[in-house]
Structure formats: C-alpha cells, structure tokens
Amino acid sequence: MEELDERKVKILNAIIRTYLETGEPVGSRTISKYTDLNLSSATIRNEMSDLEELGYIIQPHTSAGRIPSDKGYRFYVDHLLENKDKEISDMKDFVIEHTERMEQVLKQVAKMLAQTTNYATMITTPKSVRNKVKFVQLSQVDEEHLLAVIVMESNVVKNKMIPLAEPLDSETLLKLNILLNSTLNGLSIPEINLGTISRLKEQAGDHSDIIGIVLDAVAETISQEELEVYTSGATNIFKYPELSDSQRASELIYALEEKQQLATLVTENLQNENTGIQVYIGDESPIQTMKDCSVVTATYELGDGMKGSVGIIGPKRMDYEKVMSHLKELTSQLDSIFKKPT
Amino acid sequence: MEELDERKVKILNAIIRTYLETGEPVGSRTISKYTDLNLSSATIRNEMSDLEELGYIIQPHTSAGRIPSDKGYRFYVDHLLENKDKEISDMKDFVIEHTERMEQVLKQVAKMLAQTTNYATMITTPKSVRNKVKFVQLSQVDEEHLLAVIVMESNVVKNKMIPLAEPLDSETLLKLNILLNSTLNGLSIPEINLGTISRLKEQAGDHSDIIGIVLDAVAETISQEELEVYTSGATNIFKYPELSDSQRASELIYALEEKQQLATLVTENLQNENTGIQVYIGDESPIQTMKDCSVVTATYELGDGMKGSVGIIGPKRMDYEKVMSHLKELTSQLDSIFKKPT
DNA sequence: TGTTAGCACTCACTTGTTTGGAGTGCTAAT
DNA sequence: ATTAGCACTCCAAACAAGTGAGTGCTAACA
C-alpha cells in the first residue's frame, strides 16, 4: 500500500480539524474552501474517495460528508499533531489551598481538569514504586486495641487498628517501637522479606506473635496501597451529542462510577516504563464500553518514586492538542503541588 | 373541602399502584377491571374527574389516562402505605468482609443498596453528635514534622502533620503527650473551650506555642469531620424513561457527583431529632434539580452518638414500600455492621 | 495527465397528512 | 347512584412528499 502523498495528508488534516470543531460530517465543498490548496470540490471528492478506500475516513451513509475513522484519528495524533506546548493557565496557583490529605488534592485536581477541558477526567493515587517506610509507631489506644501508625517517605500516613487479647505494658511497647523503627526504617516493601521478618521476631522474644501480627498489618497496609481512582466531570459527556444518547451515556457513566475498570486501564501504563502520554482511540481502549470514546492518559511522577496516572475521557473528536498539552503541563506540576503541603 | 370518601381513596390507591408498576398513565378502564369494586369505567371516570379536581391526579393531556400528582404521592405515602415490614435479604451477611476503613464500608453499603433497589443511593459518614476524644499522640516523624494522631471514641482515627521549626527533644515530647492525653481524654468537642485551652497552655510552660498549634490542629481535625457523602448506582436513573432524557439525566448525575448539595439535603435531618424516614416528593426536595424525583432518606445511629444518613433517589413513582422497608432494615443493621470490624 | 464543471442519484431530515386507538366527558336510560 | 353509549380529543405511529447536502461519474479542458 503506497502511503499518503502530501496533498492527501493536507486534506485528511483539514477534514479531521474541521470535524473536531463542528462534530458534523464534513463534505468536499467545505474542504475546497477551507484549505489554501485552491482545489475544486470535485478534486477533493476524488481524493476523499481514495482516503476512504485507504481507511482513514468513513461515510456514515451514502450521501453524507466524511468523518475520521479510528485509523484517521490515529494518524492525526501520531503525525499531524504539532506539539504547540502553548502556555496554560498556571494550575499550581489556581488549585490548592493546602489540604493535607492527598485524597482532597486528587479530587480537586480531577475536578479542575474536568472544568478546564470539558471532558470527564480521572486520576489515581500515586503508587509507591519504591516507597520507603519512614516511621512506625504502636500505641496502646485502649485495653483491647493497639494502633499502628505508619508514615511513608512520601508522608503518606496509614493507620491500622490491631485487636489485642490483653494490653501490653508500656515497657514492652517501647521496646517494640524501638525495634520496629530501627529495623524497618528506610526499607521499601520488597526489602521486607522473610529474613527481616524472622530476625525481627527473634529479637522480639516473648512477643514474636505480636510482631507477627504487626508485620502482617504493616505489610497489608503498605501493599494495600491499592490504586484508588477519583473521577470528575462525568456529566461533561452530555456535552457531546454523539455520546449522550442514554444507552451510551449510561454505560460510560457506569464505567466512570466503577472505578475498578479504570484502574486496569492505567496500571499497565505504570508497569511499563511508559512515561509519556498514551492515547487510546475507540477500540484501542481496553475498556469495551469506551469504544466510542478516546482516552488520553499520562503518568505523573513524584520524585520520590511515586507514580500515578491522570486521564481524560472524551469523544473521539476531542481536542487532542489541548488535552495533551494540558496533561503535559499538569504532570510536570503535580510534583510540586504535592510537595507544597504536608 | 370535604375530604376523600372511602371509594375515592380506593381508586386513588389503585391508580397510584398501577402507575408505580407500569409508569404509564392509567385509564378508567384499567381501574375498572383491576379493582374488586366492580364498578364500570364510567363510574370510575366520574370519580377520577373528582380526584383530579381535588389535585390528587393529573392528566398529561386531554385524552390520556391519569398520573399521580405530587399531592397524590404524598397522600399515598402518608396514608396508603401499609408498613408491611416484609423480611428482607439479610444484608449483614451479604455485605461485608471486614474492611477496617469506614470509607470502604460506606461505599459498599451504598453500592449494595443501589443494586438491590435499582435506584441511586447515597450515604454519609456518621457525624459525631457527641463524639469524644479517646487518645492523642504526638510523634516526631522527622526533623521537621510532628505527627498528631487522634483517636475518637468511635475508633475513627485522624492524622495531622505539624511542621516544626526545630525538633523537640524526646523528654518534652513525652511531657506533652501525657499532658494532652490526661487533659483531652474523654472530652467532646464543645467541652474543649477556652478554659481548657488556656489551662493546657499554662501547664505546657515553655512550649505553649506548640500546644497552641497542636490544639488548633486537633480542633480542626475533629471539627473537620465534615460529612462525606458516598453515592452509588447513579446510572440506575437511566432505567426510568421519565428521568433519562439527557437534560434531566445530566442534571441529576451532576447533583450526585457534586456531593456537597446532597450533604445539605441531609444535614437538616440530622439536626432535628428527626429519627425516622423522611420522604421528599418532587418539589419538596430542597435540591432544585431533583424536582422530578423523589428522595427518601433515613438517619442511622451508631449507639455511641454517631449519626449519619442514608438516602435513595429515584423517580416519583418509586416503590416506596420496598424502599422504606429496605431503609428501615438497613438502618437497624448498620450499627452492628460498624461494630463488628474495628 | 491532472483538474474541473456539470449532472444524475442517494439518502437523511423535515414537514404535513392520515389513521388508529386509547381515553375522556356528557347524556340518557336503568 | 350507576352504567351504557356516543361524540370528541389528542397522541403516536405510519406514510408521503419535498428539500438539500453530498456523492460518483463522465466528459471537457489545460
């Protein structure tokens, strides 16, 4: 298959751009005027016919204009998109009064992104690729409960209540605390292995059982850093007629509500060293219900080895240019946004 | 205005019930057969005409059946609803593997309720009407950060990072901890007043400034027990044609996404000693965008003075009977559901 | 050989008209 | 007081016709 010559590319580009704007099938006449090629609509028609044969555009029905196919969008995103990197309103200032809870920050970011882009958005909690334990403390809360507080290098705090048969005396507690801290401090999850554990238990002597429970709790707590996903702007999809019939809308909103699926979409990105921006067009998305949408995701990194994901879900004819530069901007700022509070 | 005689009531009842089932305007003929009154459609017509004049039912257009008006629903809910208290699938068992985080539990409850009722649901975190401090602890996490951990009587744990100019020595820390615990322990929020505060500061001596910061943090943390609201089953509204045109659906889902509004809907209930089940029909709801829906809320109580709210949002023709008994069942079980974990 | 003008054809969409049926209100008879 | 009967209303579905945007093809042109 011989590839597209320059003129075809120009025409394809014109088609897609105008379609992105209007959302209506675009006809030969329109292109003939819009471009500076000075070609008659007839010529354009011939070229469009070729483009359709090559699979870049589709005719919804016989006597309608053409709309881009998934392949067309793909080509557009891969080759036609100039990286303008326009400057974008500085989010850092706009966004956040210091809330200490990451949850709040994430929700706010999602919301703001949804507002500025007019698409549905999602963001995951950063996942500790290599997060270290910074501080551990056990406290006797009441007769029957021990509270384990774990602070990670990233200043994420986790709590875990541990039921106890009978209270520990304060001396033991102190000993355990010192032991835990001196051993675990600075270790990342993979480093807390059987060796560490058995050594710990040994040193705990009488209370190895408690250490066991605590360690389990710690491990669980740490690893239970499941990706949480926050979404916002779900209703934005109603702004795009091609998505807002109740069948599709329902499915989409359901997918946004059931965050679990979204997580899967994003995890693979985190696994791979896929640091850049990922674009899923239509069927390319692993989530079936999103086959009528495009999904753009980006990973952000928090310096201290935490990685998370931001994503935008919109119609196929989304403004890729704006979305991608927004995401690029955002991911570069998230680090400092998170650092500022604490 | 002379009130409804018995026959009118029966007819109204029949109209509403069949409308709840079908969702279509119901005509005289239908009623004539459905009821055991053995009346001809003509008679029914006369009665219906009366009922319409009294405002209990409406004719969407001249030659259509009748549908209940808000007033009709109101009458139905207030007088016609027998409290069957049918037994309902036991949620306690169904629901919850022990997750220690209340958030998880609430999300699950909302989800399950949405699944069994086929309406949209919401649930708030329990609010401490009279929640007491059980345990406080300051820990030196690193050079520049103090971590305050606060455990409430209800075993809710809150963390607060406090930035420090320079580290405290461990002796001072111990002193502060003892001081805080002995003073605050068992106090509820209103009891931590200026008196307590100044006494505390006095006793803290050199470190009164730190106590100040800590107390602020504690107060903020405690009072910042803002109602969080979790929703689920938003997409259920698409199951009811009268709500699923994109205009309405969009507004509704937006309202569900913007949980803030929902909170307001519910708070007033918590304030009042309104312990029972509250039904808002159409315009009765304080949230404007829900004027086409009915909202049923119930408050649950957790024994230790925590109160929260569960709600169901559905079409006006929701199955009030089922919904109300579900809610009644649920609220009575929530206490033990929460107690079980820890 | 590439480009263009012209023309017939297609097909969704709109508008107007028709028809059927469900439902009502009224009246007269029981 | 109830009911049968009938005329009337009005929505909804079906159908017809007109409109217009857009295409494909062909023949003429540079």
How is this structure best described in words?
- Two copies of one chain form a homodimer.
- The first copy, chain A, is an alpha+beta fold and 342 residues long.
- The first copy, chain A, has twelve helices and eleven strands.
- Chain A has helices spanning 6-22, 28-34, 41-54, 70-80, 91-95, 102-117, 170-184, 194-204, 208-223, 246-257, 259-271, 320-339, and strands spanning 57-58, 67-68, 120-124, 127-128, 133-142, 145-152, 157-163, 229-232, 277-281, 293-301, 306-315.
- In chain A, a hairpin with an 8-residue loop joins β1 and β2 (67-68).
- The longest helix of chain A has 20 residues, at 320-339.
- The first copy, chain A, is elongated, with a radius of gyration of 26 Å.
- The N and C termini of chain A lie far apart (57 Å).
- Chain A binds chain B through residues 100, 134-135, 137, 139, 141-142, 145, 147, 149, 151, 155, 157, 159-161, 163, 232-235, 238, 244-246, 249-250, 253-254, 257, 342, and chain B through 100, 134-135, 137, 139, 141-142, 145, 147, 149, 151, 155, 157, 159-161, 163, 232-235, 238, 244-246, 249-250, 253-254, 257, 342.
- The structure holds a DNA duplex (30 and 30 nucleotides).
What is the H/E order of chain A?
A: HHHEEHHHEEEEEHHHEHHEEEH
Structural class estimated from helices and strands of chain A? alpha+beta
Give the % helix of chain A.
Answer: 40-55%
**Number of E-state strands of chain A:** 11
Give the helices and strands, then pairings.
The structure is a homodimer of 342-residue chains.
Chain A: H1 6-22, H2 28-34, H3 41-54, E1 57-58, E2 67-68, H4 70-80, H5 91-95, H6 102-117, E3 120-124, E4 127-128, E5 133-142, E6 145-152, E7 157-163, H7 170-184, H8 194-204, H9 208-223, E8 229-232, H10 246-257, H11 259-271, E9 277-281, E10 293-301, E11 306-315, H12 320-339
Antiparallel strand pairs in A: 1-2, 3-8, 3-11, 4-11, 5-6, 6-7, 9-10, 10-11
The first copy, chain A, binds a DNA duplex (30 and 30 nucleotides) through helix 3.
